[in-house]
From TrEMBL:
Keywords: Cell membrane, Membrane, Transmembrane, Transmembrane helix. PANTHER family: UPF0750 MEMBRANE PROTEIN YITT-RELATED, UPF0750 MEMBRANE PROTEIN YQFU. Pfam families: DUF2179, YitT_membrane. The chain crosses the membrane at residues 49-66, 73-91, 103-120, 140-162. Residues 217-265 form the DUF2179 domain. This is YitT family protein. It is a multi-pass membrane protein. GO terms for cellular component: plasma membrane. It is found in: Cell membrane.
Length: 293
C-alpha cells in the first residue's frame, strides 16, 4: 500500500513539473536550472520539442549514475521521467496560461518546486544534474552543492545570452522560489520543535506537561554556571503547532522560566498529532479562558 501511495505522489509531482514547464516557463522563455533549463534552451535553438531534449539529456545521465543512485531510486526516477516526458508531449500544443512576469515567476516556481519536491520526497528525481551530482560526489568526492552551483551558474549565464538579461533575471527568481518550495515540501511538513526548559519549578512544570498535554519529557541533570548547584532541565519534542500552548503552560507555572526552542527537521519516534486534536485543544483553551474570566 505504501508503495502505491508513493507512486501516486510521484505521478502527481511529475505532472506538476510538466505543467510548469510547458504551460508557464518555456513559452515565456524562462528557465529554472538543470537539465530542464537545458531542454527549454535546446527547444528554442532547435526544431525539436522540450521532451526530446529532456530525454536526450537525462537518459545518458541516468544510465551513468544508476548504480550510484541505487535500484529503487533509479526505477522511481525512470518512472517520473517517463510521466514528465508524456505530459510534455501531450501539452506541447496547449497555449501558455499567462504572460504576466509576476504570475510566471510565482506560479511557475510554485508548481515546479511543488512537483520536484513531491518527486524527491517519494524517492525519485527529475533533474539530471542532481543525479550527476550524486555520481560525481561518489566517484570524485566533489561536494553536491558545489557541483550543482557551478552547473547552474553556467546554465543561467547561457540563458542570459540566449533569452536576454531580463529573462535571465526572472529565471534567477524562479530558481530561488523553486528551491524554497522544494525545501518546504521536504522539511516543512516534518518540522517539530525541540524544547529545553530551565526553571526553579521543574516538578510542577513536568506534571503539567505530562498530565495536561500528554507529552513525553526527559529530565536532564545540569549544574548552574554561577551557583554551581545541581539543577534539573526539562527536555521534550513537540509538534510546532502546539508549541505556543506549551510556552503558555510553562509561563503560567513559572513566569521566569527560560525556554530554548529549536526547529528539528528530522525526528524518529515522535508521533504527529492530528490537526483535529490541535483544533479541539485550541477550542478548549479559549473556553477555559472565558470560564476563568
Amino acid at each position: 500500500m505504501r508503495t502505491f501511495v508513493d507512486y501516486v505522489m510521484l505521478t502527481v509531482g511529475a505532472v506538476l513539473v510538466a505543467l510548469a514547464l510547458e504551460l508557464i516557463l518555456a513559452p515565456n522563455q524562462l528557465v529554472d536550472g538543470g537539465t530542464t533549463a537545458l531542454a527549454i534552451m535546446g527547444a528554442r535553438l532547435g526544431e525539436r520539442p522540450i521532451w526530446f531534449f529532456l530525454l536526450a539529456f537525462n537518459a545518458p545521465i541516468l544510465a551513468i549514475s544508476a548504480r550510484a543512485l541505487g535500484r529503487r531510486f533509479a526505477w522511481r526516477t525512470l518512472y517520473c521521467n517517463g510521466v514528465v516526458l508524456l505530459g510534455l508531449a501531450l501539452l506541447r500544443d496547449v497555449p501558455a496560461v499567462t504572460s504576466s512576469e509576476v504570475l510566471i515567476v510565482l506560479y511557475g516556481g510554485l508548481l515546479l518546486g511543488l512537483g520536484v519536491g513531491l518527486v524527491v520526497r517519494n524517492g525519485g528525481a527529475i533533474d539530471g544534474t542532481e543525479m550527476l551530482a550524486i555520481w560525481a560526489n561518489q566517484r570524485f568526492r566533489i561536494p553536491v552543492s558545489t557541483f550543482l552551483l557551478s552547473v547552474n551558474v553556467v546554465i543561467l549565464s547561457g540563458a542570459a545570452l540566449l533569452f536576454g538579461l531580463e529573462s535571465a533575471m526572472f529565471s534567477v527568481a524562479v530558481f530561488f522560489l523553486v528551491t524554497k518550495v522544494i525545501d518546504f515540501v521536504l522539511e516543512g511538513f516534518n518540522q517539530v520543535v525541540s524544547v529545553m526548559i530551565i526553571s526553579d519549578n521543574c516538578e510542577p512544570i513536568r506534571r503539567r506537561l505530562v498530565e495536561e498535554m500528554a507529552l513525553r519529557v526527559t529530565l536532564l541533570q545540569g549544574v548552574g554556571g554561577y551557583s554551581g548547584e545541581p539543577r534539573q532541565i526539562i527536555y521534550c519534542i513537540i509538534d510546532r503547532f502546539a508549541y505556543a500552548r506549551l510556552r503558555a503552560a510553562v509561563h503560567e507555572v513559572d513566569p521566569r522560566a527560560i525556554l530554548e526552542a529549536s526547529i528539528v527537521n528530522e525526528s524518529a519516534g515522535v508521533k504527529a498529532r492530528p490537526l483535529r486534536d490541535l483544533v479541539v485543544d485550541r477550542y478548549r483553551e479559549h473556553a477555559h479562558g472565558r470560564a476563568r474570566g
